[in-house]
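Per your request, structure below.
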């Protein structure tokens, strides 16, 4: 996942200063996001996140240590979508981990090949919601790595996202949520599924739309473990559509909730930034295409992305483990509140409890926020008509209510093939403003975007 850079640190700083000035002049109204109430179950899970647990999965999936797959050791040298056995083993590895957690369901969702991209399988785990089970929160990452034709350990891109999402599944297992939460591990991300209709996340999101599923939020965790040494601050980004493309502000509402949870739970060592860019360049784009609110969580990419992406050098020794653990804690917190975590049952049948300081705990602190006041959470809007996704209905065993997609189309490893690729989708990166909430933030972002448009240098087309 490499990126073109179009602006200097000075221009970003000036835009933030301009935003702050405008926000103070506009007297921004209260955020549309419900206030986050500290929940002891979430605090406990945050405290339990360790670098050691994260490092085991990253190391095994990137080949730093043998993995146990099907009861036998296996060493990964790649997870390329064209690798055959290796990507199959990666899918099985994740499937077996999810099964061991005791989730409500764990399934493979097969998808066909398309435009030179190979067929494959998504892996979907689910915890069924309680009072709002028809509303779904998806958290995910991509299983495959790049390059296609040489060793591709993909430790940051995206074993880091896979490990963090598995940790969320492990942490949430056995707990109750208002909304249904799905843990999605997508194939063929390096083949640009957001420019396709059938492979990987495109097939999954399209079939969810065809079935009328009510996905209220999606977070893609992609490359979250590298803190660039060129940057003094530990920047982590959450990418949304630009204001004109996120008409009801649903993407931005997820960001605001994320930033609120960072504050409420005191997750330090991070500078959280919203980057508004409507160009699709990871699995969240497939959800945008089908009318669902979605964001991507990623370590700094705007100016100083990981130089080892898409090479044999994307290995565990390059990662910043303390930074990675903090990003994962923020990911866990926002996912728990989006899904509406319910308080733990008190021991001994007593109601309520007390915190470490002996203070009374708030009743029902984990209520799921309506992330937009007056927002329609009944499902996707129509953002371009029928995308021609096959399937829908039928109650199949793939974690979406649909039957499996039949395989089709053989793989191609020729350069220039291998997916629905569109060049230059990184052109026009626009930084939004961290921590500016409500209607005023939309005005600020538009104003800043116009100002930055004059400062941006031409950007080279870049893969991912």
């Amino acid at each position: 996942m490499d990126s073109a850079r179009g602006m200097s640190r000075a221009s970003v700083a000036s835009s933030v200063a301009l935003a702050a000035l405008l926000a103070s002049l506009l007297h921004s109204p209260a955020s549309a996001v419900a206030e986050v109430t500290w929940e002891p179950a979430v605090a406990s899970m945050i405290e339990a996140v360790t670098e050691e647990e994260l490092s085991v999965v990253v190391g095994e999936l990137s080949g730093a240590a043998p993995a146990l797959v099907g009861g036998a050791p296996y060493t990964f040298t790649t997870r390329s979508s064209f690798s055959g056995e290796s990507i199959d083993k990666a899918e099985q590895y994740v499937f077996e981990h999810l099964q061991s957690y005791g989730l409500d369901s764990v399934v493979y969702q097969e998808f066909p090949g398309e435009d030179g991209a190979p067929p494959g399988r998504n892996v979907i785990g689910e915890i069924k919601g309680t009072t709002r089970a028809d509303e779904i929160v998806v958290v995910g990452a991509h299983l495959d790595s790049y390059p296609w034709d040489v060793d591709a350990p993909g430790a940051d891109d995206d074993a880091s996202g896979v490990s963090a999402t598995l940790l969320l599944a492990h942490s949430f297992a056995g707990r109750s949520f208002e909304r249904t939460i799905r843990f999605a591990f997508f194939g063929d991300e390096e083949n640009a599924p957001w420019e396709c209709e059938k492979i990987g996340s495109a097939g999954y999101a399209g079939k969810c739309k065809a079935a009328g599923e009510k996905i209220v939020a999606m977070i893609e965790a992609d490359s979250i473990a590298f803190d660039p040494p060129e940057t003094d601050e530990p920047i982590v980004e959450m990418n949304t559509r630009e204001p004109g493309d996120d008409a009801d502000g649903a993407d931005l509402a997820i960001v605001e909730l994320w930033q609120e949870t960072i504050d409420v739970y005191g997750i330090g060592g991070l500078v959280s930034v919203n980057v508004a860019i409507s160009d699709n360049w990871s699995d969240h784009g497939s959800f945008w295409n089908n009318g669902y609110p979605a964001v991507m969580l990623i370590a700094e990419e705007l100016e100083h992305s990981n130089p080892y992406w898409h090479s044999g050098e994307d290995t565990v020794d390059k990662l910043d483990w303390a930074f990675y653990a903090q990003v994962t804690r923020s990911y866990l917190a926002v996912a728990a509140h989006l899904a509406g975590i319910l308080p733990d049952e008190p021991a001994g049948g007593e109601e309520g409890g007390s915190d470490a300081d002996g203070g009374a705990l708030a009743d029902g602190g984990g209520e799921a926020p309506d992330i937009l006041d007056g927002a329609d959470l009944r499902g996707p809007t129509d953002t371009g008509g029928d995308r021609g996704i096959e399937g829908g209905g039928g109650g199949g065993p793939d974690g979406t209510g649909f039957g499996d997609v039949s395989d089709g189309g053989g793989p191609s490893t020729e350069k220039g093939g291998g997916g629905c690729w569109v060049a230059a989708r990184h052109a026009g990166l626009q930084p939004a403003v961290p921590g500016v909430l409500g209607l005023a933030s939309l005005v600020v972002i538009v104003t800043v975007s116009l100002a930055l448009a004059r400062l941006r240098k031409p950007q080279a087309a870049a893969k991912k």
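Residues 30-347+360-382+394-405 form a domain with the Aminopeptidase fold (CATH 3.40.630.10).

Regards,
D.
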